[in-house]
Amino acid sequence: MSIPATVPLKPAPWKDPSARPYVQLERLTKKFGDFTAVDDISLKIYQGEIFCLLGASGCGKTTLLRMLGGFETPTSGKILIDGEDMAGVPPYQRPVNMMFQSYAIFPHMNVEQNVAFGLKQDGVSKAQIKERVATMLDLVKMGDFARRKPHQLSGGQRQRVALARSLVKRPKLLLLDEPLGALDKKLREHTQFELISLQEKLGVTFVVVTHDQEEAMTLASRIGVMNHGEIVQTGTPSEIYEFPSTKFVADFIGSVNMFEGKLVEDEPNYVRIQSDELGSTIFVNHGISSPPQAVVWAAIRPEKIFMSIARPEGTDNIVQGAVQDIAYLGDLSIFLVKLPTGKVVRVTRPNTSRHSEEITWDQQVYLNWDSTSPVVVTR
Amino acid sequence: MNERRSLFILCCLGFGFAFLYIPILSMVVFSFNASKLVTVWDSAHSPTLKWYAALLDNDEILDAAWISLKVAVINATGASILGMLAGFSLSRFSKFRGRFALNAMTTAPLVMPEVITGLSLLLTFVAMEQLIGWPAGRGLTTITIAHITFSMAFVTVVIQSRLATFDSALEEAAMDLGAHPMKVFFVITLPIIFPAILSGWLLAFTMSWDDLVISSFASGPGSSTLPMVVFSKVRLGVSPEINVLATITIAVVTLMMISVALWMARAARLDKARQ
Ligand SMILES: Nc1ncnc2c1ncn2[C@@H]1O[C@H](COP(=O)(O)OP(=O)(O)OP(=O)(O)O)[C@@H](O)[C@H]1O
Ligand SMILES: [Mg+2]
Q1: Total-model pTM
Q2: Closest-lying ligand to the alpha carbon of A66?
Q3: CATH code, domain with B166
Q4: Is B175 in Cβ contact with A107 (below 8 Å)?
Q5: Whole domain around residue B212: which residue ranges?
Q6: What domains can you pick out in chain A, each with its CATH number?
Q7: CB contacts, 8 Å: B271 with chain A
Q8: ipTM of the predicted structure?
Q9: How many CB atoms lie within 10 A of CB B202?
Q10: Distance (Å) from the C-alpha of residue A18 to the closest C-alpha of chain B?
Q11: Is B43 among the domain residues?
């Protein structure tokens, strides 16, 4: 997995307390009967962001988006868009456009008419409509298909028509519900970058729903991880990946080795965790705020664990185990190493050199990691 | 083996077609018969068009046909509009007071024996006339109302089942793009479900066109529909004019079906050519 190295020129708006959010959710809740689909969400999204809502199926992403679009009335809480309270504002009067999970392309209109539909509602002149539709279709590379009916298009082409249709009105806020769900991996990656460059060109604020964490990582300026209707953490992709705040986030984003343990040494500048699962202690070179003897979890990413046949130097953060399984993935290999305690640890190694130390099945290996690598979470 | 089976299939096909079409075909043939006796082929003077001429002179049948046509068209249109409203409220609004009652009441005419529907309508018309003076007597109006009452149920079912598979995201998308709900209905929903409405209309039209029982209850003097006239004539002995009438009806239906098929083929061709 790649983490895009975005270097912001100005301080990020979410770190600037004086910045004005473009979208603001205040304690937003939606209940269907006594089932809570969206649970007390407060959130600020800033102009020009690509904000990704990431979560498992059924966690309330679409419901949240539909409330932003005006198709679902919040049970309680407030939605402010550009400072304006959206309560009671119908969908056709919101400065928002939405790309639907099912694309919702009008089957009785051709591509051109589909894209022109929104402009017609605004009373834009015929000549202008024609020009703007043509430009937009070129932008999504659908210019040659303007006269086609939707049933004559492939899934990817339909998706691009839906995108063009929602962008042509130049909304300030675009809501995209699983925009790339129907595409194959290759096309999806390609389209992700197209989306980013489109977003930069047009300066629209995107709120993207996805359950694909790689997609969220590629697209997002920030990610909001959802679970059971709540947002459990928001942050940039690298923050979410490197510093997950809960077990759920650590587990959900990427793969991770999770070791349950007890705090045995708790100093301001380091902690030591006794883990029975690991059969050893974990040394972490920063303090955490947690009561002593508390149960905590240390999360270590597979790529941050080093593997060697010879015992590495030092005394901390070293365990021994036997290679149980190896999966060759081309650019890297995954090793499953079984510890004497029975716990299986996942380790990845890039296949950088053809002559790297040959490690095979059933071999005894040492695993070790930096004292900066473990992330300690308390819930 | 294979040949035997295909022979068997051919026999089935032939028998099926014969079963369906020999009565109709014999009717068509006998419409050109010169004899006054419907069942006797007069080979000396046949074929002849004399019964066709006679039909055109028969004001009773022509009047009845005209009444039937008017009733059928008004009924089909009225039933489509009402059926659409009922279908929409039943499939779109999940919970409202009286939903169950509306559902039961719209589908009741589907299972109600026609005699009962007809009789109850007649009683209603009589009672209404006594109470509010409308409808004054029985005639075209009462027949049309009666037909709408029972054929609306069929249209409702057709439209309701079409709307059940309608993707409501289409309407939401249109609203999202700035269209008022009213406009959404006319430019998105209506065109997409139009085929269902059309088939509902045709269904209501045919049901009205050949209804006998309910019309008999709701009609008054001077407002006999075609099926009523035909039925009363047949009771006195089948006249060859009835054969002619049937032949013309078949011809019109066949022509309509052929032209619809041609029109659809042409639309498909144009669609292809445009790319
Ligand atoms: N109209 C509704 N009535 C009752 N429950 C609903 C309704 N709409 C959604 N839900 C429930 O709310 C929960 C959240 O649904 P939602 O569509 O927001 O999920 P999602 O996160 O978008 O999932 P997916 O990734 O599968 O699209 C689900 O458990 C769903 O069953
Ligand atoms: Mg969804």
Answers
A1: 0.80
A2: 1
A3: 1.10.3720.10
A4: no
A5: 58-274
A6: 13-247 (3.40.50.300), 256-377 (2.40.50.140)
A7: 149
A8: 0.81
A9: 14
A10: 32
A11: no
